[in-house]
Amino acid sequence: RNDPSTSTIKHYIALGKAYATFYKTGAKAIYTNFRASQGIQDLVDTKHDSSIPTAVSANALTRSEFQLLYRNWHDIKRVPIFGLVFIICGEFTPLVVIALSSVVPWTCRIPRQIEADRKKLETRRGISFRNLIVEPPTEKGVGALERMQVLHISWSLGLSSSAWDWLGGQYPGLPTWVLRRKVASSVEYLELDDKLLGDPKRVDELEVEEVRMALVERGVDVLGKSSESLRADLIAWLKSRESAPVEKLLLTRPSVWPVKPQYLSDKSS
């Protein structure tokens, strides 16, 4: 007769091995993306003074190329720490990285982890919006934002660990100058990505998961929404950007953007 506890242990060991295989595949994908990005990076380095914003302004990059560079750099920065965790924990890595999502490269994140991270982020974003009492800016620029505003954007986009929230004060978290720098970097990225997305009609060309990722990066809730609603949100963002800066949209819900998503417009008509 089989011991249930033994069967359970064997099950988790097998599951751990499956995850280990998944992570190894993800690591290979990082290398593949690195190789694929080298030609693009060389172009940026040699013809645009190593400046991605300059390359984007010169229309030298497509959005796919821009995203490849951005995501590849995101993953490469995380390889040393994630690799160390994997070496130490081996098949138990999935149990560890649940609490350390920020160190996991995109190519090594399992769907369940992505879903859980988005749920936490949306909960945190909702709390922050309820506490946000400062009027959104009308002009472009992170420098003029108040601490509560840069803190909200940081919470909404997941720019810093929730562990910092345990620090004291009325508005806990990282020092304002650190938050401002993180937010400024995100705003610049979104401005470039918006330019490369271009015509809102192009949103229909994106895969649904690409739309989700774009919305998460813009502080928009995605869980439980249909593909039509997700596309409507991104289209509304791009149309709103014609008259509003990124900072204002990050500090407001889609329901009060200059151009509301189609599904909200239909309800109000």
From TrEMBL:
Pfam families: LETM1_RBD. Keywords: Membrane, Mitochondrion, Mitochondrion inner membrane, Transmembrane, Transmembrane helix. Residues 75-269 form the Letm1 RBD domain. One of its GO terms (cellular component) is mitochondrial inner membrane. Signal peptide: none annotated. The keyword Membrane applies. InterPro entries: LETM1-like_RBD, LETM1/MDM38-like. The keyword Transmembrane applies. It is found in: Mitochondrion inner membrane. One of its GO terms (molecular function) is ribosome binding. Its main location: mitochondrion. It is a single-pass membrane protein. The chain crosses the membrane at residues 81-106. One of its GO terms (biological process) is intracellular monoatomic cation homeostasis. This is Letm1 RBD domain-containing protein.
